[in-house]
Amino acid sequence: TSDLRLPTESLRHAGPRNEAPPSSDSALLGTVLETMIEGVMVVDGREQLVYANPAARTLLEMSDRIVPGRPLLEAVRSPGIEAAVQIALATGRMHRSELYLPRKERTVALTASPLAGSAASGVVLVLQDVTELRRLERVRREFVSNIDLAPTFTELAGVGDGVLDSLRERL
């Protein structure tokens, strides 16, 4: 397992408190984050990595030896992710972008959302592998662009002319 354990105490301050005991909240949150297929990362206001779930670590090929507090760019070596964090921190607004990961030949949709409270407190990143979706979109575009509709339109025009001629004869 990774040294990037669930930051339950810092994350607990990001949202409303429930009446359930903190240990059950932490366990539930930990289970949800650890089993998600989307990558989830938490970065603090100083752009240091606080947490990365297994999906994020796998997608970004992060070493299990990366420890909390390490600068984000050192941990993930992705200027695109760093830029998304900086935009979310600077604007206090959600930022969406797509990244191409050349080593893994994957396309990732990235959402960087400031944590509740001030933007300087940190950012939650959600990474979704959209490689297959983009491939299917490309196949669809190529299919549509390769369809030759000219013969079909010619046939329809011929049928339309025949119908019009038939109607004229009846009038």
Model description:
The relative contact order is 0.13. This protein has 7 helices and 5 strands; from the N terminus they run H-H-E-E-H-H-H-E-E-E-H-H. A 5-stranded antiparallel beta sheet has the order 2-1-5-4-3. It has 171 residues and is α+β, with helices and mostly antiparallel strands. The model is unreliable at 8-20 (pLDDT under 50).
Summarize the structure.
The chain has 171 residues and is an alpha+beta fold. The chain has helices at residues 8-12, 22-35, 54-59, 72-76, 79-91, 131-146, 150-170; strands spanning 39-44, 49-52, 95-101, 106-114, 122-129.
Look at the structure and give the mean pLDDT. Answer: 81
Strand tally: 5
Q: Taking strands numbered 1, 2, ... along the chain, how are they ordered across the largest sheet?
A: 2-1-5-4-3
Helical fraction: 40-55%
Distance between the termini: 84 Å
Order of helices and strands: HHEEHHHEEEHH
Report on the biggest sheet.
5 strands, antiparallel
Tell me the fraction of residues in β-strands, as a range: 15-25%
